[in-house]
Amino acid sequence: MNQHSRFNLPLCLVVEEDIFTRTDEAVKRYLPEIEGKKALIITEKFLHDLYGDIVTEIQADYNNAEVFEVVHADFDEAVSIAKKICIDDIKVVIGFGGGRILDVAKYASYVSKAVYICLPTNLSNDSLASPFAVLGTEGGMRKTLACKIPTAILVDTTMIQKAPQIQTLGGIGDTIGKYTAVYDWALAAQACGKPVDDFAHSIAWMCYDSIAHFDEKNVTSISFLRTLARALVMGGLAMEIAGSSRPCSGSEHLFCHALEEYYPEIKISHGLAVALGTVGAANFQGRDDLKMLEVCRSYGLDLNPASYGIDKELFANIWMRAASTRPDRVTILNNTELNREWLDEIYERMANN
After folding, report:
1. pTM more than 0.90
2. For position 143, what pLDDT does the model report?
3. What is the DSSP letter of 327?
4. Of 31, 37, 176, 202, which one has the greatest count of Cβ atoms within 10 A?
């Protein structure tokens, strides 16, 4: 059996203006069997209050669907929601929100075997279409759990235009990170004596290319948001095809994990942390980081660590601890002797570029 016959694809992917006002029309063409079935909308209070009219319209479209407001967005809550879905005989789960809400909805639907429809309210990272969910566990630690990609993904560009621009910049950062992730993946495959899936590799690189070489550097334009949405979704599909997060996650993500796990007081989005990590990772890989710095600057993405409260010492400490966050993940860090002088030089390049 060909290895590519084993992966799942969304049955429906729509990127359009105002699509959230007609989600039922978009989905029923591909999933006619869910019409009239019991549904649950998973969101959070803030978004429910902010977009109450849209949520009400979605409720009406799906047989007066119940709304569940997520509080903790952790593993226990996701499993509790899955239990509710099973007990209440709910067949359709609709995730409406950002990354943490969508991960809860994705995992709950996976555990309960319900159809999952993903409605992202921002484009901050590629988790919206990935076959993984990152959920909080004991002691505030976060764990990446395998699950299933959404059955349908609807991206409303009108909604995304209203989202805080910092969230869209995070999505750009997560996409830029594929520049170093695919390199680390090839390195790991060589070390383990396993081939890289060329199809997944090409898709991940295409995601990077589509953003790095997009002509119009306007993060609020509809044409750019369509391109970013598709790049993030395709990143998720690259992971699904590869059967791991390797096409989209390398040493740049280890930097992000170390920042999130050891220094939670630093308030920075996942995607922006990945972008910061990509500069260091490119240097360790012996590759040109100037082009990447230029791309980020052209979108208004600030890669000066000091802008996020990260001084030279903290920057060095994050990199020193990065590999320990995923000791089983082979990256360029396995072949790199980090030293303070080198890390200080990288910090200066980022601060002055």
Report:
1. yes
2. 87
3. T
4. 176
